[in-house]
Amino acid sequence: MEQETTKTKCPYTNFKDKVMKYIGILRTPRKEYGDLPPCPFVGAEIDKGKLMIDKLDPKESTLLDKVKAYDESDYDSALFVQVSDEILSGHDTVGYQDYINRTMKENGYGHLKCICFNPNDKLDIDGFNPRSHAPYFLINIATREALNKAHKTLAKTKYYDNMNKRYLKYLHKD
C-alpha cells in the first residue's frame, strides 16, 4: 500500500494579497467610526506607495532588522506580518505591543511606535471588530510624531464617539 503524502500550503503564501484585502476593510468608512474608516490614513499611504508591507519571520530576520529597514526608508509607516507557530491570545496583544515599543526605545528607535493588530482581539464597536478580519498578527510601525498628529486630527471628528470605555482604555484614550 502506497503512503499518501499531503502538501500543506504555507499560510504566508501571497501574504501581501491577504494584507491588501484586509486594508480594503480598514479603509472603508463605517458608521461605528463616525463615518470614517477604521484606519483613516492607510488608504492614502497605499495610494502613494508609502506603506511598507513585509513579513517578519524570526528564522530570517529580527524585528530590529525590519525596524531599521523601515527607519532608513522613505515609507511613512510599516506593516509587518508576524510569522509564528504560536497563537497570541487577545489578552496578550498589549503586552507584546509594549514589549516591542520598549525594545525599539532601548535600541535607539524611541521616535517610533508600534500598534499591533491581533485577529484574536475581542474589541468591537457595536459588534464590528476590524481586528478580527486581520489575516495574520500584524505589527504596524510609524513615527510617534505621525501617530500623535493623526490622533489630534481624529479627536476633532466623531471617530471615537461610539467607542466604549474598554476600547478607549485599550487605545490609551480614557
Describe the structure.
The chain has 174 residues and is an alpha+beta fold. The chain has one domain (15-170). Helices cover 34% and strands 14% of the residues. It has helices spanning 15-26, 42-47, 63-71, 93-106, 144-155, 165-170, and strands at 51-56, 77-82, 112-117, 138-143. Strands 1-2-4-3 form a four-stranded mixed sheet, with helices on both faces. Strand 1 (51-56), helix 3 (63-71) and strand 2 form a beta-alpha-beta unit.
Class from secondary-structure proportions: alpha+beta
Give the overall silhouette: globular
Number of helices: 6
CA gyration radius, whole angstroms? 17 Å
Total separate domains:
1
Tell me the strand percentage band. 5-15%
How many distinct beta strands?
4
Helix content: 25-40%
Order of helix and strand elements from N to C terminus = HHEHEHEEHH
What does this entry show, briefly?
The protein is of the alpha+beta class and 174 residues long.
